[in-house]
Design brief:
This is Sel1 repeat family protein. It comes from Arenimonas donghaensis DSM 18148 = HO3-R19. With 272 residues, this protein is mostly helical. Helices cover 56% and strands 1% of the residues. It has 2 domains: 189 residues, no CATH class; 39 residues, no CATH class. A two-stranded parallel sheet has the order 1-2.
């Protein structure tokens, strides 16, 4: 499979095949949802193997027989999680992450805001215990790093606060995007100030980890730049903290911990 293309794509379960048909017809919401599911399943493939499921079963049984109910309950929770993941991801090709990368990227290039955040923040690359970091060798990483920064900048200019928050997280070295961002303290400080201006009440946006404090001049410049961006790109608007904010803050807007959420991919081209 060439990077960014789908050649002789394997069959998918009916509900996902429907998403694929729609995605190939230009439905970027469908492409985003399909890509999110496939990349997610690729990242948890080890946890869904029969070997791991049997491992949890054995621990639960032994702990229960020994009267260690706390350990048995923990094993039962892990078993349930693995079984649910296996059901969620059954019937997929051996490397769903490769197919998922294609569809997430396609949806991002098509302008879907959620796909842009997922792809540009590095979530589309996926990692797993079985396949490790092979995206570094197969061309996906080079393709992604050539696209991601410009995607996020364009999304900021369209008024999507998720792009601002994604970059603040990256400048904190807490996402894969941090790998490819050149050091730029002035821009990082300005984005940090912009995030604070966007989210109401103050203090609820992710903030920059100030390993070294900006000078007085840097802080003043960052604040002025942030005010300009806030007015130009966001019309001075603020975004209330709450359930909506959780979709804005990577990785909460991501789907790795709980599986692809039903609202992961919307039809929006920017935040409403």
């Amino acid at each position: 499979m060439r990077v960014g293309t789908v050649v002789d794509a394997p069959r998918l379960p009916p509900e996902l095949d429907d998403l694929r048909i729609r995605a190939e017809s230009g439905d970027h919401v469908a492409g985003c949802r399909l890509g999110a599911r496939l990349v997610y399943c690729g990242s948890v493939v080890e946890a869904t193997s029969e070997r791991v499921i049997q491992f949890h079963r054995d621990i639960e049984e032994r702990a229960s027989q020994a009267g260690d109910l706390e350990k048995a309950n923990r094993a039962a929770e892990s078993l349930l999680r693995s079984v649910e993941l296996a059901r969620h991801c059954q019937g997929l090709p051996e490397r769903p992450d490769l197919l998922g990368y294609h569809y997430l990227r396609q949806a991002a290039l098509g302008g879907n805001a959620d796909a842009i955040i997922l792809h540009a923040s590095g979530s589309s690359l996926g990692t797993s215990m079985r396949h490790g970091w092979d995206f570094l060798r197969d061309g996906r990483f080079d393709q992604w790093r050539s696209e991601a920064p410009a995607m996020l900048q364009k999304q900021i200019e369209k008024g999507d606060p998720a792009a601002v928050l994604a970059l603040v997280k990256a400048y904190n070295d807490s996402t894969m995007l941090a790998w490819i961002l050149p050091p730029d303290p002035d821009r990082a400080y300005a984005l940090d100030r912009l995030a604070e201006m966007l989210i109401d009440p103050p203090g609820h946006a992710p903030s920059l980890d100030m390993r070294s404090l900006p000078t007085r001049a840097q802080f003043a410049g960052a604040r002025e730049t942030a005010r300009e961006w806030h007015a130009t790109y966001f019309g001075g608007r603020k975004y209330a903290s709450g359930p909506q904010l959780q979709r804005l803050v990577p990785p909460a807007r991501d789907w790795r911990d709980e599986g692809p959420a039903s609202d992961t991919c919307t039809g929006a081209e920017s935040w409403p």
